Amino acid sequence: MRIGTRIPITLPQRINTELIQALKMFNHLYINIHINHPDELTSESRDAILALANNGIPLGSQSVLLKGINDDYFKKIISTTNSNKSKALLSVSM
Questions:
Q1: Dihedral over Cα of 38, 35, 37, 75: its sign
Q2: Digit-coded pLDDT (tens) for 19-74
Q3: At how many degrees (to 10) do helices 84-91 and 71-79 cross?
Q4: What is the pTM of this model?
Q5: 3-state secondary structure the chain
Q6: Who's near 34: CB < 8 A, 6+ residues apart?
């Protein structure tokens, strides 16, 4: 089962021992955390994410590219690489 959520970002205090123990009861559970911008990663959200990971819950992450929200950050990441694919991505109008 895969759960997509923003809870570790928007309500990190919900990731507590009780919830983690309940999640650990499921086999083949994966949590995909939706993060829109690095500024969303507070110390509380980092602690919540680490608590999940340290308890053996597989985590993934994804972001939607949002014009005016995180496209500048994406361009910065891509511009630090030297591949042709990166250059092609930068040439696409966002």
A1: positive
A2: 999 999 998 999 999 988 888 889 999 999 999 999 999 999 877 777 887 777 76
A3: 150
A4: 0.72
A5: CEEEECHHHHCHHHCCHHHHHHHCCCCCCEEEEECCCHHHCCHHHHHHHHHHHHCCCCEEEECCCCCCCCHHHHHHHHHCCCCHHHHHHHHCCC
A6: 4, 5, 6, 9, 61, 62, 63, 64
